[in-house]
């Protein structure tokens, strides 16, 4: 909800599952796909889709798509249609283009010379327009505006191998990767296999989990033969809800094949010499669920470190520390710990305020976002508050909150933002308001405190954010690398383009 | 409803409209498209779709699709989205494949190198499988099983002209026609033009109408400048409901361009030397609405002639003639006129009996189709009835009706069928039960009267049907030909494949 | 549909079913109730309701209600809820008040001191306002505007018997009947019994049928022990669709008890001395389905007689006779038979034109009702038509049809109306436009032919209509009376108030 | 969600609004009613209803009802119907009976001799069965099982005043109160007035707010003439979201009249001599939103005091304190403050896990409630946790959470419950599992820690809870009483029946 108001939005979440062992499987693949998707719901609420395959020759695919939340899009009756699936991929979508139609809903399924394939994609191709033209010049009509269809047609048309030679999907995927550098985390299903692919910059997340008996979920000694299936997901937070153990990340540039026989790394496509990885730093700041693990560290812990760093960079003479519930809470607790100020709650959020209809130009509209919050007056009346927010995008949501707190008795409200000012557009999968709408690019920003009614405002520095993120990665890099050959592709690096304007690739690529 | 029970079904109806004169038009194009489609609803009730274009450079297309009847699929609110359309095409679909999904709903819209195109199709390509493989071999992934997508991709990929040369759609359409002989009546919209195309055999119908001021709708002296727009439709029955005058048929093999400047015949692609046209004779017998005009004659009149012919071929010693309401009524009236027997009504049909849920294996199921009918007992008690039906497909619907009439007091029931026995599958757009299900191919057919409980049964002969159809065409051919150059393509001929097994083209084409 | 446009509408249909023999029954009571209701759908399309009882002590009632047609209102899943019913009543409603809400949907169910009762009602209480006030003065709050609730509360509150005495429903029903003379055909269910009640004037129809094995449906020798259940319905046309045999009418003023033990006449409440019965003559003319039986004669036959009578009263010098499909067809055939003119079809009706959205003030609106019809031009071009309509209410629907026929080539169109002009409001259950809206009360009526564009117009006389209706009743009265004691209440008489202004009871009753 | 799983549920929330000053009002009454209801959504999610009146003579009422959340039940289009309302009442319902039907949705509206009234009710009449029988003995049929209809009919039938005398609603309400002692917080609308009533024991909450210009929302000097309208609500948490200032509570036994002229206390009906008030203590513990104010104190503060008290009663040798998000958070922070242990977060909750379909008997079902939570492992691995929960009802939800924490690395998990064990049913509006289902009544309770897998378990004592609640009331009582005459009815007292079995009134009342 805050996302919608702030105007920042993630594009998508992808999730896949392959049952291990003999087929037909006893594993409830359709349910795993559904619940896995529910756990990625924060990455997109516009539409959802699932495609399963029975894995036979030829395979039977079953597709289910719907608008809205997963729980709305799929009825129990509809899910029954998927019950013969032995593997499948699923997708939840956030609309960045404003064209909210079932037709754009992923996964995208097509018949090719080499059989039916299904594709689910998180990210945004930086050179999508050039690629569309290339595909159309080949004589292909494109029926949607989605990158997923574009990717699918690119996989279908290159290289032009004869039917008898077989598809060689790995060659086709490599060819696709040579056509576009970033950003994509991709699942492609063909018959009985899922290919999990991450672009060479690793801009969007993707990780693998192992389904084990619930009773062995958290025990350390899980045997190979305990594996009931494999899952692959945008975020590891989905693993708890389906009873999977975290296995590993898909590396930047890696093509992984997941089948009933297990997980196999097929290739790691390198970046151009000298380029660092460019994992989106806003996944840590904003998008990911706090219990997800990226690069060996928990997102919650990174946010807490951001809060600590903020307390170091911008200490405040105040009585209490609090949060704008609830995404800023880890940072607020970090700030409190570092500063020694007591942590309290000052706002109570109404979870049911959603799409309630408000007529324009009424007194109720003046209440703004404050409609959603109740002030916990007794907790802070007469006190000076440090209020931690995770970001300030347009500046129009924090202002009514400050007003609410002051009118309810706060003597001072100091805003501390646990990320740097957002100044630049993203072309790699995040929906950000135009430069003109971003408060950091507007004249009011010179007196941002005055503009939003705060007693003071401080943002975390870019350096502070990067160090808070990268501090926890070092040891991980040494310990957990699965392959020495891929070391070079795993030097630490993050995309901070929206904060610094430094894009990981040339935009005219 | 009878169609569903008999198991015969039409595939589709197509409809298009272009506003004449200056744009933005005052003509209510979206409403014309909707009402035109409603008038073709008998050709398909599964889903409906409309695509409009504002005709600008580049054009804005708006698409609306939905499941079910036109009135269900499109809400008034949704139709508002189409209000800026200056031209458009629409489609209503009957599901032959059993895959009833929004995704298969037409028109199909794609972006090509030469801009966005929309395609609506009635018919079935006899060589669809070979064409699919050809398209996929070119590297195109096909996302649906519909011929419409296949046609669209064929139009997009051939010939491989450079962007700067422009699309040359006529060459592309001719190329398409060289790839597949039949059956298709096709509407293709590109920017500000609709191309109306009929396959060289003229297997599916297509005709053109002119929108004039309502006040001049039926006056003979309509001036060129009175034209408010042009419509193109599977059947002319749609013209009355939108206030259009019948203009002419699209000829077999003809490519017609319809724009705001008027109607222009671009080409007539010939059939192979010696081949006759092959307009589906079952359009006359069964599918078309009785007020539609094909080949210069009204369907109702043909059906009435079939009834007369039937009375000549199979006279009956009986008291009264009646009909199975209501598609057989014209034939019944023809039979009555020819035989001199009085025409009466014996059955009253409940229009609301539709998809009411009946549990299997109950006594109510034994009532069968008789549930839908009330016997008008007083009209026929103690009398011998000649009951005209338009066709007997499986033999399971006429039987309970005969039982109902007899139990209500009819002393004899003689069945006269106004078409010959159905014996062969159709590969050109009509959904017919398998050969094994057709009563005419079953052992019971030897004693069909006994099997269905009638006192006697006679079918119209193939010769009788053909002569009843073609008798009205002769004068028409001489009078109304629009172009002498196309004479050769208009010799009289009809497809009777489902009755005779003689298909107009080699099936392995 | 015509009803809606003409502005005349029936209020409701009621239907009940009790399984005979041992309970739990094998009879599919819920399906019988549903299909019976579907067969009464022409009496009301706004909402539908079913209440079943298992008949136990205490009984379990199950209620299902929904908006729209029966097929829309009840899903197969929902109908499953009713599967334990051993008896039940159902109702389909036409909205006369404009308040179209689920809340007004019948049957109405309440808990009383003597257990739960359910009530379904067809008709309109002439003294409803006075009764509402009486009930409210007793201290009862009324939650709907429906007469059904009013009747239910009247049954609950009178007479004030103590719980230990039992309800004595017959006394309560008689008391209700003493409070209001007409109009009501009523079904009341209590535990294991349905009471079927018709007001002393017999203004609304009600009849009883017997469910027998389908195999014995039309044989004459049905034994007592063959009875599978009893049904009670507004019209006998519903019997065919559920496999029931017509048993008899409920008499004016009669209270019939239907239980698993059979049908029992409890009482016949007499009319005031000298009053005749007043069965609504418009049931014959317009509302009822042609295969229904009233007063021993088939509605179709009466309509045919009206056509014959019309030919006698208003002969025409013309070439052909035809009908406005399809309610006027029996009268048209009657006119043709009497006049010797040939009967043909001139109009083809599009069954799918329904609630399609048409923007106001467009050229399409000018087409009016003609949108629904295709002209069968070849049948009548150059001919003089006698066109039979069943009634002309506002005069706005026949006019575009005449125009359509003339423009399509009819040289003359003579309108013959198979009923007299409508001039007065109905207070007994029929929705009729206001006096000012009725064409017969307007100045234009003086030149009605000119006004609607016909070459001549003639209506059936009131005397002609009454004799056409009553001619078939005489013999029936002598033959079939079930009880000599009730003879006096069955002298022949009909309500012609909407035609003559003579109401069967004082309106200030 | 937890409520549903724990099996405790509130019955309802009520909300009303009257526009001040001249009518038609400029105040967006329908929106205020809707948003007010949204803020009470935690009190009931099954259905919602709104009734507005224009306040004229006679008034026009408009009713809107729907199933599900307020945002689902009311579309923007539907809300437009309410736009002429000058006052109105609304209701949100939690289904306790399992009969989830639109019919039971409140407010209940009826026509009485004295005009139409609408009633919304929170609570449960302890003597509902006796009252139902009394009403039915009077001859009233009851169409629903809801207490709201019962109350409405009681208001309608007593006393039997003649129409000319006027309704005297206050006498009728007093009569109702003499018939039933508890529990009810009631809104009754008649024409242009809302009566707000609270039962003499004050068992359910009800308070009044004043709508002021948004700009003056939190300033202290609001003038009489600034009043834009009055609102009345189950909880004051709704005031923030509509821009209202807290005005005062409705007192136990008080009848308040709210009109455009202001708020007027009409009467305070006393309790029997010696009886204390009996405000439901579980409103503090569990149901109410933390920012609501009861008896002059914020619910959040009471919960925090419960946490402090729990730390005193049950100190723990542990490393960190945490919460089961998120209702237990105030108590957890209180426990942390009192104990000096650091407060951390250990669980991350997936807000989207809702009604997702899980097949029974699958491995996913074994995950239980843990599906909803992600473990924030890094925060607590290797530590001893004190986990605060607000209540343990059945014992089946806390157990999987403990398992999850332990498997994720917690060395000890000590459960501290911020309320006493639930042992007795509630007959006054709260839905509690049967005695047999309550874990505190089961044999397993003797070793509750072992049963749920905790290292130790302690509940707050009843005395501890009561003192935590009442400690904040003392000063309030002296300061804020609006009327000295009502002092006696405001001595401090709470209903602890579900904990102690001591009910405020005799149950056979």
TrEMBL record, chains A, B, C, D:
- E.C. number: 2.4.2.14
User: Cofactor: bound how, per the entry note?
Assistant: Binds 1 Mg(2+) ion per subunit.
Pathway(s) per entry? Purine metabolism; IMP biosynthesis via de novo pathway; N(1)-(5-phospho-D-ribosyl)glycinamide from 5-phospho-alpha-D-ribose 1-diphosphate: step 1/2
For this entry, list what GO says about its biological process.
Answer: 'de novo' IMP biosynthetic process; purine nucleobase biosynthetic process
Q: Where does Mg(2+) bind?
A: 327, 389-390
What enzyme class is recorded for this protein? transferase
Domain Glutamine amidotransferase type-2 stretches: 12-261
Ordered alphabetically, the record's keywords are:
4Fe-4S, Glutamine amidotransferase, Glycosyltransferase, Iron, Iron-sulfur, Magnesium, Metal-binding, Purine biosynthesis, Transferase
Database matches in InterPro entries: GATase_2_dom (IPR017932), Ntn_hydrolases_N (IPR029055), PRTase-like (IPR029057), PRTase_dom (IPR000836), PurF (IPR005854), PurF_N (IPR035584)
- Give this protein's Gene Ontology molecular function annotations: 4 iron, 4 sulfur cluster binding; amidophosphoribosyltransferase activity; metal ion binding
Active-site annotation: 12
SUPFAM superfamilies referenced in this protein's UniProt entry, alphabetically: N-terminal nucleophile aminohydrolases (Ntn hydrolases), PRTase-like
Q: Name any one Pfam family assigned in the record.
A: GATase_6
- Residues binding [4Fe-4S] cluster are 280, 426, 495, 498
The source's superkingdom equals Eukaryota
> Cofactors per UniProt?
Mg(2+); [4Fe-4S] cluster
Q: Which reaction does it catalyse?
A: 5-phospho-beta-D-ribosylamine + L-glutamate + diphosphate = 5-phospho-alpha-D-ribose 1-diphosphate + L-glutamine + H2O
Function noted in UniProt: Catalyzes the formation of phosphoribosylamine from phosphoribosylpyrophosphate (PRPP) and glutamine.
Q: Give the family, as the similarity comment puts it.
A: In the C-terminal section; belongs to the purine/pyrimidine phosphoribosyltransferase family.
The protein in question is named: Amidophosphoribosyltransferase
Q: Which organism is it from?
A: Mastacembelus armatus (zig-zag eel)
